[in-house]
Amino acid sequence: MLLQQFADFLSLITIGMCFILKIPQILNLLTAKSANQISVVGLLLELTSISILFAMQLIPKVVLTILAPLCTPISVSSKVVQLMAIYQAKNADTISPITWFISAFTNLTRVFTIWMDSADILLLANFIISVILSSSIMFSAIYYRWNRVKQD
């Protein structure tokens, strides 16, 4: 009973945090007046993955069996492309570590709530991988902010 209440509380926090997820990134871009380290391909893949996850709430179960397996590779691709963009630039001035912390945190809360509600292996794998990759982007952004590399 107590674990279920905690899962419900985490669900509410996750929903609230998702409303503000991109605000720190947008503010960071406005301050930097640049979007150099933001991967457009990664952003488009992330939006596709989010759209599929949202659609999963609205569509029949038959269609879910086709779309659900696509979420993980699309989500992974979006984050790997963003990580590559940071690594290639050796700069993360336009990347908001706060945005990626929120992403990792909300993905972690989803791991717990999915485990409590259904223990769906596909969804659990998707969100566990997302926690790892979002954390990697956050730590990469922090690393390159603290360890500036001279550009030729």
Automatic annotation (TrEMBL):
Keyword Transmembrane: yes
Keyword Transmembrane helix found: yes
Primary location group: membrane
Keyword set, alphabetical order: Membrane, Transmembrane, Transmembrane helix
One Pfam family per UniProt: PQ-loop
Membrane topology annotation: Multi-pass membrane protein
Coiled-coil stretches: none
Locations listed in the record: Membrane
SMART domains noted in UniProt: CTNS (SM00679)
Membrane spanning residue stretches: 6-23, 35-56, 62-86, 98-115, 121-144
A cellular component annotation (GO) from this entry: membrane
Name assigned to this protein: PQ-loop repeat-containing protein 3
